[in-house]
Amino acid sequence: SHPQAELLNDLEVQKKEAKKNKDEDAFNYAQSNIARIITQNPVQITPEQWDVMDNSERKSFLLIKMKEAKVLGDIDSYNYWLSNYKIIENQENEMSNTSSMHR
Question: Which residue positions in the chain have pLDDT lower than 50?
């Protein structure tokens, strides 16, 4: 999970309430704080940490990075993380297809 997950979740709730109440100032405040927190505290791992992760953990990490990129409006980063996510999914699909053929 994100290092600031609790605060981000609280801000997301505030943002949804503001949208529901049509409070544009509160919505923009929550949105800008979410972007600031993500910019200042991005989820990061070392290559060594990546190497010991299983595919489920890797996919969770990649989903967080995709959400960060989406919030920041960074389409290039989003596409980068998405392509890595798809590579893992394709590897998993190939492995499950191979194992089902050998039964």
Answer: none
